[in-house]
Amino acid sequence: MISYYKLTPIKLGCEVRGIDLKTETRKEVIERIKxxxxxxxxxxxKDQRVITGDQQVHISEWFGEVEDTFYKxxxxxxxxxxxxxxxxNEGYTGVGRTGWHIDGTFQYAPxxxxxxxMASVPKEGATVFAPLTEVIEDLSPEKYAEWDRLWMxxxxxxxxxxxxxxxxxxxxxKVLCFHLGLTCDFVYNYRSPGERLTTPQExxxxxxxxxxxxxxxxxxxxxxxxxxxxxxxxxxNCAVAHEAxxxxxxSRSQVGLxxxxxxxxxxxxxPAKTL
Length: 275
Fold this sequence. Notes:
The protein is an alpha+beta fold. It contains 6 helices and 16 strands. The protein has a 7-stranded mixed beta sheet, covered by helices on one side. It has a 4-stranded antiparallel beta sheet with strand order 8-7-11-12, with no helix packed on it. The two termini are 30 Å apart.
C-alpha cells in the first residue's frame, strides 16, 4: 500500500505527519484520508501552520456538503465556520460545555464529520474525545438491553427522534446518537408495542447513566487533546463523542486567547437500527 503520510496511533485515532492539507489536491490521497478517518475515527494532522476559513471549508468539502453554522460571530472567517472562544469579543463562549455529545442531533441526521482548527492556542483549554463503540461494548447486559430500547427526543413538537444505539452507516459498528445537554425526553420502544415517554425521574437517571459511562474509572475511555500550533482534527462525528474541558472557559487574561474554528459536514443517512 502506498504511503502518502505517516500515521501514528494514539489513544484515540492517529496523529498524521508529512502532508499539507492546504495544498493537497490528489484524488487518491483525499480518498485515503477519508478511508483512514472511517477506520481510525479521528485524525490529528500536525504542523499545518495557518489555515484560513476558505481553506478549512475546502478541506471539509472533501467529505460532503458543508453545513451552515448558527455560531455566526462577526469575526468568523467564513459563514460556514463556527468561531468559538474564551473571549466573547472573539467568538462564542460556553460552546461544548453542556455535556458529552455528538454534533447535530437536533437535525434529521447528526453531522457526518466535524473538523477543528485552533486558530489561537491558549496555555490550556483541551477538547476531550471518547470512542462510542467501546462505550457500548463496555455496558452490562442489563444496561445495553435498556439503551437498545431507547430513542432520544430533542424537541417534542419539532425535533427528530433518534435511536440511542444504532448502526454506523460506514463502519457498520454500533454507536450512540446522543446529546446530554439537549435531550428533553427518551422514548421506550418507539413505534413498537409498549411505546412510552420516560418519566422525569427516568430521564434524569438515564442521562446520569450515560454520563457515568464516559467518566467512570477516572475517565479511562477519554482522550484529552491538548492543542498545539498547527493542529487540525478531522473527526468521524458519528463514531466519536466530545466535550469541551472546563479549562476552555478560563479567561483570556489567565491562559491567553483561545479561538477554535469548527466546520461540520452534512450526513444524508439518518440513524437507523439496521442498514
